[in-house]
Amino acid sequence: MIVIKELVKQYPHATTPIINQLTLNVVKGESVSIRGASGCGKSTLLALMAGFEEADAGTIQIGNIALSCDREKDADAFRRDQLGVVFQSFNLLDCLNVWDNIAFTARLKGVVDAPYQEHIMDTLGIAPLRQKMPSALSGGEQQRVAIARALVHRPSVVLADEPTGNLDETTSDQVAQALYSICAELATTLIVVTHSNEVAQQAQTPMWLRHGTLHAAPVAGGR
User: Fold this and answer.
1) Other C-beta atoms within 10 Å of 28: how many?
2) Does the pLDDT at position 35 exceed 90?
3) 65, 110, 191, 195 - which has most CB atoms within 10 Å?
4) Banded model confidence at residue 106, pLDDT cuts 50, 70, 90
5) pTM for the predicted model, two decimal places
6) Sign for the pseudo-dihedral over CA of 13, 16, 21, 24
């Protein structure tokens, strides 16, 4: 599903690449968590996988789409039709209620499915909040809405950047469990960047980003 080969990304004025000859193979429906020190390149890697940034070298293949500057139309179609992104910041539209915030992306993609949206909201425990505005929600509720919005169009890949980073431990565990559960139900490939050992260990394949490359993470332990 996702094949990354010898990926390199170096920012101007940096002495070493933040991503350095990184290789990763992820099968369809697999969940992968990525931990690492602050500033080690976790968010950069997700941005590269989403096509938001361009690599200096190497290749990223997601399904039959090669993310590269000479295949920009393919990359745009992938982002529009197959990708779901969950950010640490909720990025909800203040002028829309919960239902319309979740439906917004699906409407843009032309794949509105009200019964399925109901199912996603039920699973995430936010169905009773459908008429509420974002300003009336707690942080955990807002993050659940953001996750629902990323999943409602049935993406083949979800990239989640610190999806529980702003939440307390109990809420973090609940939100992470819901995210993993729905992606497993959809056979959606899930890549989660997190600082939380508890969130990371729920993934089928926990990994650690160090010196620009990915390594297998311990099964248990600290950050």
Assistant:
1) 12
2) yes
3) 191
4) confident
5) 0.90
6) negative
